[in-house]
Amino acid sequence: MTEAIFLDAGGVILDETASEVARASLICGLLAVHLDYSQADYWRDTAEAVQDHVSSVYEYALFKHLHSRGLYPAAMARYRSEWQALGQPLVLMAGLPEMLARLSGSYRLGILGQYGQALLETLEAAGLLGHFAFQDTQDDHTLTKPDPRYYLAVLANAGAVPQRSLMIGDRIDKDIYPANVVGMRSIRMRTGLHAAQEARLAIELPDATVDRLADITPDLVARIDAHPGFQNPFFS
Hints:
The protein is α/β, with parallel strands linked by helices. It folds into two domains: 4-15 and 91-225, 3-Layer(aba) Sandwich (Rossmann fold); 17-86. It has helices spanning 17-32, 39-51, 57-66, 72-86, 96-104, 117-125, 148-158, 172-182, 218-225, and strands spanning 4-7, 108-111, 165-169, 185-189, 208-210. A five-stranded parallel β-sheet has the order 2-1-3-4-5, sandwiched between helices.
């Protein structure tokens, strides 16, 4: 039975739509210095990266077009500098307060994402941080997604058992797959850039898929608990 639920940051807690548009503009500007490259090209590269389960979508476009020219390291360094200078604000996902209220009454909630202290500050400012019993962020760990050891480290800090924990995330490659590997149950939130991503193996399949936070309820978690999940022979 599920006792703890962990939420991904981007795509579940945070709506990254505006950030992705800003990121596209920045990447296109960097690439246009060296080649004829448009927003349409960027979104095609993004779709390709999503389907290929590439870990970093924006890095993929820079690497694909600049690595063979020897220009990738400098372009990546410039991207990081300019992205940090943009100071893109964090935007909470619509329906988040209601979902947290529904779940926190029955389960202990935690964060399992790649955002740091700024995420906690955003939740605190919205009066939502109190819903989270576990408040680890990426800043507390040297490992990161999709390394299953990151999942195990977050769970260990929370005193949570993988087989009694559930992950909610938007990406198959960085959320659902590693959660399944360590023995967690999983719900996929089909949203944002990775909405079209498809599983390629049984271990990449979530226990449930939803299109909005309103669909994530204690009843859904109970239905997941009522059926066996993926059995990983290495974590049985």
